[in-house]
Task: structure prediction
Amino acid sequence: MEIDNYRNFLAIVEAGSMTAASEYIHIAQPALSKQVKSLENYFGTKLIITTRGSKHLILTDAGRILYHKAKYICSLEDMAKNEIGDVSDGSKGTLRFTVANSRAAVFIKECLEPFHRLFPLINYEIHEGGITEQSQQLLSGIAELGILSVPPIHQNNFDVLFRRKEKIVCVTAENSIFLKGITTPTLPELAECPLCLSTGCHLMMSKIFAEKSIRPQVLSICTTRTTALRWAEDDCGVSIVPMEPKEKLPEGLIAKAITGVDTDLYKTVVRVKGRPLSVVAKKFLQFYSDVRDSERMIKIKDL
Result:
């Protein structure tokens, strides 16, 4: 199907009528009607309903689906056209990331700000989400590179480019009523406190507690690390979150190692397996390799 048919279908829907769309895009109304008929034949269903005496059209359920998909298809073509025109040497273009919830601020400060100083004409799209959303954003092409805190859904669909070990720590307020005088709490000691866990840590810690036949007091399971830490800031409980080496917590919070907890938890940089990377993405990965203390899983020249 010609992409102009999708663009003209969008124009018809957004203009609200064939007549208005015809005037806006300077295509005769019979030609537009023929294109709509061609789309309906192609998809085998009615897309638009027009009522006698009314200047406005009504989208069918199929028409609404096509409207959203056509916007995506056309945006992909526009994106490709812009990137191809801009990134011949990798100094211009758009980098599209999906970043684990609450990790964007650290990623921007540690990686994107210094990269931006080197390449000021590159711009960015940053999508945040849980691991299910991140996997979908990568597979659909909305994001080119993923910054993940937990393994992706359907791991065989992705290449891990870099990984950086994180620790699971417990976090309290400086003068907290919880774990007072305890520098490295044990699992039984933690189980006596109201616990506030980020989603990824909850999955891992639940398994660890179960193996020790310990039933913890879970106060809150939070989609984002920021929200989990908020409970500790207000001294309502003990937060359990992932933490990178040398990472700083918000003022007033203290991180404590947990005795007997040593998990293989990694923050990773991934791409969809076998999918070619843009020139700007390769340039960023070379920069990341040079400045970040991360284990490289694939040679940059092989990408």
